[in-house]
């Protein structure tokens, strides 16, 4: 009964009534000129349509119209081709073919456009299906577009060149012979207490690329989905999720998805990704979609990792898994494969005998090389003894549900795409008889993921469409396993910065790292986001260790005072308040005191008022009313919060956004500079958060024609963002465009800045 309920949690099949609903909803958005919203709704309609039907062809054709309005001409042409391939009705061809001709003209492909126009003229002259006056108007429009393109010089393709530069910058200058995907600046070492780690073999400068690794496995996070209720609106959800915007295989941001033919959930950026996903894993996952969404992303990732093992030596993998089952603890490596010391001496002394009989480091191959493959994934620690019995029971139950469904569907999908060196006739019966072995692999991966899963993040633009100055936030896009990145140990104040482009993780030095120092990564609890007690609790509960990094050591000594971005101040003298239940002014000459509960209550009330004002700004309406609310919040905050309190920074940032919406760049810049001071205190002057805020300030100075201030801020932002992202970052390229534009302006007379 439990498994039956699980399988009904989500419906991911093709619903015959959905295409019409989504097409009509998309048409409404189109009429409202919300072309991006229309595109997403048409995509949902495509996802529920069967191949070679009017439904799918109409959805593709309508989506091409929305893409045309968005200026996505190449993608529009692809959708027109898809609509034709699925049998777009002959009676509706005229408008779509004229749209195709307009796209070709705009793209400068005049010969193809002329051929389409000629074909249309012949077609409609013969059949006389279009009024002459209507056709003359359309033909006149195309002629005008032709003249416009002919008058232009052939533009140079600067964007692809910039994109290429970005990816070149992501490549390692000199690959490591010991660790794949890592630079030669690091080496793999082991420690009896900390396990495996990466150590610098030379002095490393800020911004140097240390690791560039493609995820062994990644699964797009579906996003929050509320429970189903009866009714049309809940049955066919019109909200936009990451699953509607990012390819389910490569995680590329895509405005026009290509869905799986067999389910309504999986969507991809291209037909190539559709085929690759099907060959690698989706042929097995397609019928399990509802169950996988119910069980969660960790269970999905565990299954996909096991399916991807088929691309390697299946016989070898099966033997290893059989070995795990024969162990007393089936989810831990054999004791002889536990962490050993690697024979590499950083101090320059004589190396240990490389011909020792000791086995290589856990996860390495027989030659001692650590690669980003299934062998390395299999040797990530699952911490079986640390997990609670309840967690292990739920993991085992989830895997049992998957195995039952796989068994019911047959094991054909588990035995396709084996290496050609494997005798398929011999392997298939063994795998069919040993499903429990693959179940053990899935269970092991589920237990590994709590400590080894990496959140794949992306930067998304936020705010209303009317905002000239863009704001951004980091969102979790997917869950992945990166065997090399997993070698990095934690610090609450790390010396690296991790970023992502699609499924590729890049690790850069965020500060100078000396030879012999460990390369450290933050697992989430960062000193700028959490107090020491909260960090320790989080790391202990999720990762099963007590952190003793320098930030925690220092934090324990000053824990009584608390971080400045959470501090209250004395309303009389402005000094910080200290204490537990009753807070006393820190000034020796002031006797003021206040109840912590009372101050916390005031803080919560203030947060609600700020949230109300921010909601007005997000809606793009009543900006003056939002300014009034925020100004009141600002005065109230000054009376009991420290100048570096995070809420003070939020208020100043919101005021900067409000004045930018009104075009008052002087006031906007003044408020954002106050917000910057809070960000700098909390995160540091060279932090990635500081880089994003400097980018916003550069936009404000740029729009206010404050040229010296803009150029100075652009330089600061570039310096910070370059360290964390490299040259391929979107914000860095935008800063370059702003700088070029400002430098090309003629000199202006001296005058007041914005």
Automatic annotation (TrEMBL):
<dbReference type="Pfam" id="PF00856">
    <property type="entry name" value="SET"/>
</dbReference>
<dbReference type="InterPro" id="IPR002893">
    <property type="entry name" value="Znf_MYND"/>
</dbReference>
<dbReference type="GO" id="GO:0008270">
    <property type="term" value="F:zinc ion binding"/>
</dbReference>
<dbReference type="InterPro" id="IPR011990">
    <property type="entry name" value="TPR-like_helical_dom_sf"/>
</dbReference>
<keyword id="KW-0808">Transferase</keyword>
<feature type="region of interest" description="Disordered">
    <location>
        <begin position="343"/>
        <end position="362"/>
    </location>
</feature>
<dbReference type="GO" id="GO:0008168">
    <property type="term" value="F:methyltransferase activity"/>
</dbReference>
<keyword id="KW-0963">Cytoplasm</keyword>
<dbReference type="GO" id="GO:0005634">
    <property type="term" value="C:nucleus"/>
</dbReference>
<dbReference type="InterPro" id="IPR001214">
    <property type="entry name" value="SET_dom"/>
</dbReference>
<protein>
    <recommendedName>
        <fullName>Protein-lysine N-methyltransferase SMYD4</fullName>
    </recommendedName>
</protein>
<keyword id="KW-0539">Nucleus</keyword>
<keyword id="KW-0489">Methyltransferase</keyword>
<keyword id="KW-0479">Metal-binding</keyword>
<dbReference type="InterPro" id="IPR044421">
    <property type="entry name" value="SMYD4_SET"/>
</dbReference>
<dbReference type="GO" id="GO:0005737">
    <property type="term" value="C:cytoplasm"/>
</dbReference>
<feature type="domain" description="MYND-type">
    <location>
        <begin position="247"/>
        <end position="286"/>
    </location>
</feature>
<dbReference type="InterPro" id="IPR052097">
    <property type="entry name" value="SET-MYND_domain_protein"/>
</dbReference>
<dbReference type="Pfam" id="PF01753">
    <property type="entry name" value="zf-MYND"/>
</dbReference>
<dbReference type="GO" id="GO:0032259">
    <property type="term" value="P:methylation"/>
</dbReference>
<dbReference type="InterPro" id="IPR046341">
    <property type="entry name" value="SET_dom_sf"/>
</dbReference>
<keyword id="KW-0863">Zinc-finger</keyword>
<keyword id="KW-0862">Zinc</keyword>
<feature type="domain" description="SET">
    <location>
        <begin position="184"/>
        <end position="524"/>
    </location>
</feature>
<feature type="compositionally biased region" description="Basic and acidic residues">
    <location>
        <begin position="346"/>
        <end position="358"/>
    </location>
</feature>
<comment type="function">
    <text>Protein-lysine N-methyltransferase. Monomethylates PRMT5, modulating its transcriptional activity. May also act as a histone methyltransferase. Plays a critical role in cardiac development. Acts as a key epigenetic regulator of gene expression during cardiac development via its dual activities as a methyltransferase and negative regulator of HDAC1.</text>
</comment>
<dbReference type="GO" id="GO:0042826">
    <property type="term" value="F:histone deacetylase binding"/>
</dbReference>
<dbReference type="GO" id="GO:0007507">
    <property type="term" value="P:heart development"/>
</dbReference>
<keyword id="KW-0949">S-adenosyl-L-methionine</keyword>
């Amino acid at each position: 009964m439990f498994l039956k309920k699980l399988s009904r949690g989500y419906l991911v099949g093709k619903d015959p009534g959905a295409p019409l609903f989504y097409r009509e909803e998309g048409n409404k958005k189109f009429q409202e000129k919300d072309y991006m919203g229309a595109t997403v709704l048409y995509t949902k309609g495509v996802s529920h349509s069967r191949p070679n039907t009017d439904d799918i062809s109409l959805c593709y054709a309508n989506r091409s119209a929305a893409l045309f309005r968005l200026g996505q001409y190449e993608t529009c042409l692809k959708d027109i081709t898809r609509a034709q391939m699925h049998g777009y009705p002959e009676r509706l061809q005229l408008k779509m073919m004229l749209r195709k001709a307009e796209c070709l003209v705009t793209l400068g492909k005049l010969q193809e456009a002329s051929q389409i126009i000629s074909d249309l003229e012949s077609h409609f002259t013969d059949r006389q299906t279009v009024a002459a006056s209507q056709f003359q108007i359309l033909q006149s429009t195309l002629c005008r577009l032709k003249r416009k393109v002919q008058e232009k010089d052939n533009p140079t393709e600067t964007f692809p060149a910039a994109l290429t530069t970005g990816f070149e910058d992501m490549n390692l200058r000199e690959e490591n012979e010991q660790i794949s995907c890592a630079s030669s600046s690091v080496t793999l070492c082991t420690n009896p207490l900390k396990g495996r780690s990466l150590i610098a073999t030379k002095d490393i400068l800020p911004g140097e690329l240390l690791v560039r690794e493609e995820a062994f496995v990644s699964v797009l996070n579906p996003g929050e989905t509320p429970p189903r209720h009866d009714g049309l609106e809940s049955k066919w959800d019109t909200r936009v999720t990451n699953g509607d915007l990012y390819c389910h295989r490569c995680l590329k941001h895509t405005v026009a998805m290509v869905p799986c033919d067999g389910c309504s959930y999986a969507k991809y950026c291209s037909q190539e990704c559709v085929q690759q996903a099907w060959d690698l894993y989706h042929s097995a996952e397609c019928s399990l979609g509802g169950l996988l969404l119910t069980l969660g992303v960790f269970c999905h990732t565990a299954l996909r990792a096991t399916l991807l093992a088929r691309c390697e030596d299946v016989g070898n993998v099966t033997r290893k898994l059989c070995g795990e089952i024969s162990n007393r603890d089936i989810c831990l490596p054999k004791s002889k494969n536990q962490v050993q010391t690697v024979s590499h001496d950083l101090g320059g002394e004589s190396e240990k005998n490389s011909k020792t009989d000791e086995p290589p480091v856990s996860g390495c191959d027989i030659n001692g090389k650590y690669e980003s493959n299934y062998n390395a994934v299999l040797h990530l620690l699952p911490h079986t003894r640390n997990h609670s019995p309840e967690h292990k029971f739920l993991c085992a139950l989830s895997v049992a549900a998957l195995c039952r469904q796989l068994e019911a569907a047959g094991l054909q999908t588990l035995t396709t795409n084996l290496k050609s060196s494997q005798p398929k006739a011999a392997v298939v019966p063994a795998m069919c008889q040993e499903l429990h072995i693959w179940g053990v692999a899935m269970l092991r991966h589920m237990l590994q993921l709590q400590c080894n899963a990496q959140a794949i993040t992306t930067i998304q633009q936020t705010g209303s469409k009317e905002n000239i100055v863009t704001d951004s936030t980091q969102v979790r896009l997917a869950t992945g396993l990166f065997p090399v990145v997993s070698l990095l140990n934690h610090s609450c104040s790390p010396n690296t910065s991790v970023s992502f482009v699609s499924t590729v993780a890049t690790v850069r030095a965020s500060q100078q790292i000396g030879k012999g120092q460990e390369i450290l990564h933050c697992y989430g609890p960062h000193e700028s986001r959490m107090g020491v007690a909260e960090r320790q609790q989080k790391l202990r509960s999720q990762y099963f260790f007590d952190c003793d990094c320098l930030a925690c050591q220092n934090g324990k000594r000053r824990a009584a005072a608390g971080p400045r971005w959470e501090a209250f101040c004395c309303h009389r003298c402005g000094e910080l308040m200290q204490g537990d239940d009753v807070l006393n002014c820190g000034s020796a000459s002031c006797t003021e005191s206040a109840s912590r509960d009372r101050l916390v209550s005031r803080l919560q009330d203030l947060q609600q008022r700020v949230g109300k004002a921010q909601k007005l700004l997000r809606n793009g309406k009543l900006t003056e009313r939002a300014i009034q609310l925020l100004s009141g919040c600002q005065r109230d905050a000054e009376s009991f919060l420290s100048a570096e309190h995070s809420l003070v920074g939020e208020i100043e940032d919101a005021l900067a956004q409000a004045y930018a919406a009104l075009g008052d760049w002087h006031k906007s810049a003044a408020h954002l500079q106050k917000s910057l001071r809070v960000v700098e205190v909390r995160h540091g002057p060279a932090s990635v958060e500081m880089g994003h805020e400097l980018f916003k300030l550069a936009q404000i100075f740029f729009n206010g024609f404050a040229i010296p201030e803009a150029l100075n801020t652009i330089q600061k932002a570039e310096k910070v963002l370059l360290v964390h992202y490299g040259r391929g970052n979107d914000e860095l390229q935008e800063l370059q465009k702003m700088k070029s534009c400002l430098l090309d302006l003629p000199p202006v007379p001296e005058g007041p800045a914005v």
